[in-house]
Design goal:
The complex is a heterodimer of chains A (65) and B (687). Chain A has 65 residues and is mainly alpha-helical. Chain A is built from three helices and no strands. Chain A is flat and about 50 Å long. Chain A starts with a helix and ends in an 8-residue tail after the last helix. Chain B has one domain: Amino acid/polyamine transporter I, CATH 1.20.1740.10. Classes of the chains: A mainly alpha (65), B mainly alpha (687). Chains A and B meet through helix 1, helix 2 and helix 3 of A and helix 4, helix 8, helix 10, helix 13 and helix 15 of B.
């Protein structure tokens, strides 16, 4: 029973983190992580990053008919 | 033993699928249960995914999981972001699933349920999924290059230019047509108009919330937005019940068209965070919710499909749009079976986020199967209403009349019994003044969806709420395509126009932004206006034009894919892309020819223009109407010209590619493949 509860909780946590990733809630954390790893100095602030992402996403076809 | 069990299980799935397909194909007389559609589609998709997509992955593409993808090699946290395959599947599906798979099958239901359903299933398995999968693979192997760039590099400079023009053409026509669907859904409906209008301040509120209060908290903001949207769906009833408010939100077709044109301009010129992006978030959540609810509703209610497998309109005399099953069923249902627009998504964001080549099968082939399933559900929803009601909603007044009595008399004379009282009662039940002559597919789909939803929750009492929820969902969905498309179109105009006049290409210069926004809005706004004033309801002429342009882009994508595969030395399996490409060229060319040259005035643009010109010449048109009729004649000739240009472009590209194939096969030219060189992945298996 404990094993089942553990598995269910883990699946729910995974699903939740997948939904957050799909929404874009984790995008900035990933960007900062990537910037740190590649030794990029002075990464963008969260607001700058959000605006930059939106501008890039909506300047090419991203929604189909 | 395990293998034997697996073989037996797959044989059982195939047998169930074949039995279900056989049942829907050969059923005659009595209504058939929708469960058969779900079973047939699900079994065919599972078998196609398990066998055909793995054959393509192994033999044709030879996917290589040891090869680093662009997301690994060029990871930057912005464009190139390695993403979990299920999350990327969700992204890709949300991007490819637009209003097309809902509207197309609803319109094609005029032939009966059978042609459209078979095309949705077979078209997706053998053409649409193949296109999405192969183009995704080609783009992954080229660092996420776009379709236009691949066409330029692998086919020819001219091929790339044609692809770019085709994208712009389809964008303009698509935006005009989908806007027309919204106009026809909202016309004279204060409830629906109020609900949709309120989504604009809600989106603005979310934009400001995300910009200044909680940057990056998309889910939180979207949850607030969805709650507000659901509230305004209910509040719309109070508006419709109040004479003063109802008057304010009751708009004519022309008024709505002008409002949508103004909205498109604003969405293109305003900062993207303020209106466009928050609306997209709202739309994505509501889209996912509505599609899953529809699937659950169909499975729970298991409605009877009342439309016959084939109607009398297979002869091409249909009231929704004119033309025979071949080629018009295949043009009308584009998205849901095969859509050229998907190739832009498959060569856009997705290839830059995929972790392993092997995942292209799930994301490219699998997501398209799911979109096709949405199309089958739309077909079920449209065919679950009585055929008489379906034709009354979708036929223009010039064919069936404008009063309940005239409509019921005409449609009953076709063999689909309908009483005037039925339509009046249905309109009353869904909270509308009338449901007659609402061409475009959206209102009839909304009625079908509302009937399924209300049979699941709330019964007759909630029918009007469900109907307006469905209308809001479709319209929100469409406006998202409209504003995102207008902005992308603006960038294309700036890019192309910048070559002629440099300042126009400056992306941050306000006059250039305003001018290019006005140009793209004027282009699709023209088609929208033309559809609104068209005596046949606009959908009759514009939806086939949209289908032709979309399938043209699919043909471009398959020409590029075939050329690349030929250069890769996959001649033995080239039929996988060559056959769907040939099929698309045949249907696009046949449909284009008929739309331009058919002597039937309901099909051929020129025949209709000539017939109207003859009426003017013979004096049978009132003097007051002559100016309007001349405008219609001009529009019809323009549509014929646009169709000819689209057909000409695909012919040039096919000839260009065929010459190159001949040169490669006859060894006059060495094949030059422009793939990025192999780099081994640094990620462990299972990362």
């Amino acid at each position: 029973m404990r094993e089942l509860t553990y598995r269910l909780a883990r699946s729910a946590a995974r699903f939740w983190s997948g939904v957050r990733e799909w929404c874009g809630d984790t995008a900035y954390d990933r960007y900062v992580e990537c910037a740190m790893r590649s030794g990029r100095a002075d990464p963008m602030s969260e607001t700058q990053f959000s605006l930059d992402q939106l501008d890039r996403r909506y300047s090419r076809p991203n929604r189909c008919c | 033993m395990k293998k034997i069990l697996s073989v037996l299980a797959w044989m059982a799935v195939a047998a169930v699928g074949a039995a279900a397909l056989g049942t829907i194909a050969f059923h005659r007389g009595e209504p058939i249960n929708a469960t058969w559609f779900v079973l047939a589609a699900a079994c065919c998709y599972v078998v196609a995914y398990r066998f055909y997509s793995s054959f393509i992955a192994a033999k044709l593409l030879a996917l290589d999981n040891t090869r680093a993808t662009p997301a690994e090699r060029r990871e930057d946290g912005r464009d190139f972001v390695p993403t979990n395959k299920w999350v990327l599947f969700g992204h890709h599906f949300a991007a490819i699933a637009g209003p097309g798979p809902l509207v197309g099958p609803t319109l094609a239901a005029q032939f009966g349920y059978l042609p459209g359903t078979l095309w949705l299933i077979a078209g997706a398995a053998f053409a649409g999924c193949v296109q999405d999968f192969v183009i995704l693979f080609c783009s992954i192997r080229r660092d996420g290059k776009t379709l236009g760039e691949m066409a330029r590099q692998e086919v020819s400079e001219r091929g790339g230019f044609i692809a770019q023009l085709a994208v712009l053409a389809i964008m303009v026509i698509l935006l005009g047509v989908v806007a027309l669907v919204v106009v026809n859904a909202l016309r004279s409906s204060p409830w629906a108009t109020f609900t949709l209008a309120m989504t604009i301040p809600i989106a603005l509120l979310l934009g400001i919330y995300l910009r200044y209060f909680r940057p990056g908290r998309v889910m939180e903001a979207s949850a607030i937005g969805v709650a507000l949207v659901l509230f305004v769906v209910v509040a719309g009833q109070w508006v419709a019940d109040s004479p003063a408010w109802a008057k304010m939100f009751t708009m004519s077709g022309v008024g709505l068209a002008l409002a949508i044109i103004a909205y498109g301009f604003a969405a293109s010129a305003l900062p993207v965070w303020l209106l466009l992006a928050p609306r997209d978030y709202l739309s994505s959540f509501i889209k996912a919710g509505a599609i899953f609810s529809l699937a659950a509703g169909i499975l729970l209610v298991r409605p009877q499909v009342l439309m016959p497998p084939l109607t009398r309109f297979v002869d091409g005399t249909g009231p929704v749009f004119a033309g025979k099953i071949f080629p018009f069923c295949f043009i009308t249902i584009a998205c849901g079976a095969i859509s050229g627009f998907h190739s832009l998504i498959s060569s856009g964001t997705t290839p830059k986020m995929i972790q392993r080549e092997g995942q292209a099968r799930l994301i490219g082939y699998g997501a398209m199967l799911m979109e096709s399933f949405v199309g089958v559900m739309a077909m079920v929803a449209a065919c679950a209403m009585t055929p008489g009601v379906y034709f009354a909603i979708n036929s223009p007044a010039t064919i069936v009349g404008a009063t309940p009595e005239a409509v019921s008399q005409t449609i009953s004379s076709w063999g689909y019994p309908l009483t005037a009282g039925t339509m009046t009662a249905l309109a009353h039940a869904v909270g509308e003044q009338t449901l007659l002559n609402r061409a475009g597919g959206a209102p009839s789909l909304a009625v079908g969806m509302a009937q399924i939803f209300s049979n699941t929750i709330g019964g007759e009492r909630l029918l009007s709420i469900w109907y307006h929820f469905a209308i809001m969902f479709e319209a929100l969905f469409i406006l998202t395509v409209l504003d995102a498309g207008t902005r992308v179109g603006r960038f294309m105009v700036q890019e192309l126009g910048g070559r002629v006049w440099k300042p126009l290409g400056r992306m941050n210069w306000m006059p250039a932004i305003l001018l290019s926004s006005a140009m793209i809005v004027a282009a699709w706004g023209y088609f929208l206006y033309q559809g609104v004033v068209d005596p046949l309801g606009g959908i009759n002429s514009l939806w086939p034009l949209f289908g032709i342009s979309n399938q043209l882009l699919a043909a471009v994508a398959l020409v590029v894919a075939t050329t690349i595969l030929l250069k890769m030395g996959r001649l033995k399996w080239i039929w996988v892309t060559l056959l769907p490409m040939t099929w698309l060229v045949i249907i696009t060319m046949t449909a284009s020819y008929q739309k331009i040259f058919s002597g039937n005035a309901r099909i051929g643009f020129l025949a209709q223009a000539n017939a109207l010109a003859a009426h003017i010449a013979s004096g049978t048109i009132a003097a007051a109407k002559i100016g309007e009729t001349q405008r219609v004649i001009f529009n019809l000739r323009l549509d014929a010209g646009v169709t000819a240009v689209l057909a000409g472009m695909i012919l040039v590209l096919v000839i260009e590619a065929a010459l190159q194939w001949y040169a490669i096969l006859s060894r006059r030219k060495a094949p030059v493949l422009r793939e990025t060189p192999y780099v081994a992945t640094q990620w462990a298996e299972g990362d």
